[in-house]
Amino acid sequence: MSSGDRKALVGRYLKVVAAHLPATQRDDVVAELRDEIESRLDDRVEALGRDLSEDEIEQVLREVGHPLSVAARYRPGPSHVVGPELYPYWRFAIRAGLLVLLILAGLGLVARVASGDPDVGEVLVDSLTGLFSGAITLVGIATLVAYMIERQSERPRWLHDWKVKDLGLYEFGVSDDWLDNLTRTGGASKTEQTAKRRRSETGEALSNVIAWTVVLLWWTGTFRIPGLHPMEWEYVRAGVDWGAMTRETYQWLYFPVIAFGLTRVAFDLGRAAWPGAWLYAGVGGAAFALGRVALAAWLWLASPFSAAIAVQTWPEFVDRARAAFHPGYDTAGIVMLIVAFIAVEGVFTVVGSLARMGRAAR
């Protein structure tokens, strides 16, 4: 092969490498690679005692490496989406999120079958389709977050500044034998033992991030569970169209819930990064609890459900609560109790957060 043809072949190889290099590095890297390649080719010519054929030049270039791989070695920053340090966290988040998606898909399947949907096969296919779509979305979001973290100048604090007491969450749903643990007889399973332990602040924060991410995917319709989305509910009882009220309420709350969820995710990421920041955790926890109290108040006083569930006196509340489940069940009474529980739980959480702040301050 003539020297001109050899030069053209090497030049074409270097042109591909250059196309994937930053402009500031391109000339220097190409010059360095050209010297290396020419040196290898000259050594091969000397060893064989003749000019190289096109296939032999191609072999030398293959030994140098594919142009994309070679360019990646010279680019600044990581050459991977999820590196070995971050990969275990990425894997854990996906597995935990998939477990939540599986539970939601199962609930949707049960709800549609219980509502009398005659085509069980179609229901099953819809549920599996929704599960697959949600899983793809979850993996994509987790990978995008990992990609952004990998390219930060400083690693997040929780990657290196952790404590053993904060590792409780990772004992659940991570081991490959988790199904065996759930079905094992003769003593408490790991899941049961873990459930009895007090979750660490970091573990609770990370679990909230995962849960709220899945909830937001479901709420926005990104992850669809047929029969379980508020806009698909159809339920009429005793002349009251609860499905219509649910759809109207969903429309009212659509953007507030998204804002609440995104704020909650950001807050819990902060808790995971700074588990000792008691003032931050206490004030934030109390604020979110007050948000739940405000939601309950709106549902009771001004939402589409208000006319059906609101009562004026304590005796009325007691009577409706008693009638909620006996005889039969009263939908208005059940919804009333749910709203009341949200309000009471929020109040107790506010008090508890303030109490913990007081103890920490001392």
**Mean pLDDT across every amino acid position:** 76
In percent terms, what proportion of residues is strand?
Answer: under 5%
Number of strands: 2
Helix tally? 14
Radius of gyration: 30 Å
Which structural class matches the secondary elements?
mainly alpha
Q: How would the global form be characterised? A: elongated
Span of the ends, CA to CA: 84 Å
Helix content: over 70%
Helix/strand order, N-terminal first: HHHHHHHHHEEHHHHH
Low-confidence stretches: 173-199
Instruction: Please give the largest β-sheet.
Output: 2 strands, antiparallel
In words, what does this structure look like?
- The structure is a single chain.
- By secondary structure, the chain is an all-alpha fold.
- Among the domains are: 3-74, no CATH class; 81-229, no CATH class.
- The chain has helices at 3-19, 23-48, 54-64, 67-74, 87-114, 120-150, 178-183, 190-196, 201-219, 242-273, 278-301, 306-309, 314-323, 331-361, and strands spanning 236-237, 240-241.
- Strands 1-2 form a two-stranded antiparallel sheet.
- Helix 1 crosses helix 4, helix 11 runs antiparallel to helix 14 and helix 13 (314-323) packs across helix 14 (331-361).
- The model is unreliable at 173-199 (pLDDT under 50).
